[in-house]
Amino acid sequence: MSDIWKAVGVNGTLPIAPIYVDEGDILELNVYNSLDKPISVHSHGLFFKNATYYDGAGMVTECGIPPNESFTYIIDTGGQTGTFWIHGHHHSELSDGLRAPFIIREKVPAVQYDEDILIALEDWQRMRADDLTNLQQSVPLASLGPNNPTALINGINGNTTQPIHFVPGRRYRLRVVSMSGTYWFKVRLPGHTLEIIEGDGTDTEPAV
What is the pLDDT of residue 208? Predict the structure, then answer.
């Protein structure tokens, strides 16, 4: 098993930078497919009312972008705010790196805070997603041995990412988004009390 393989990035970079827009902005996402198979790009959690052809679910709302072809997604953020993510949605591009946080900032936040911090969680497999899927379908899972993925925080190995320093008396908004392909994450901040103020783009009454 090789420790080196091709990942999927954007404009030669990985991890892909987060996308920040303001409520009511219209985002034009120009996608050129330089891979050898079709791709699509899905905006996870957005409604796309009367515009499902921009939803980006491969073989559901579109056929996918052929190799060496382009498509422009028009994403109207009117009526939605919150923490989302964008990812490949045709083959396995998501698990190979084609994913990024997508933040729609409110004009008037429902809850006031001093600082906004993004925490994007990812699982990074030990081989290309297509190869891992084919292997799992051809041999018993138990015979593969330990194959736990690496956990990434904002695109960096979770064991080496920089700590967050909280200042007493300040209020922080933590935008936690799981961009995992297969695994769940549990998030804890020992010694701190967290309030949930939004989930999947919907504001909630603050709840511990």
Answer: 63
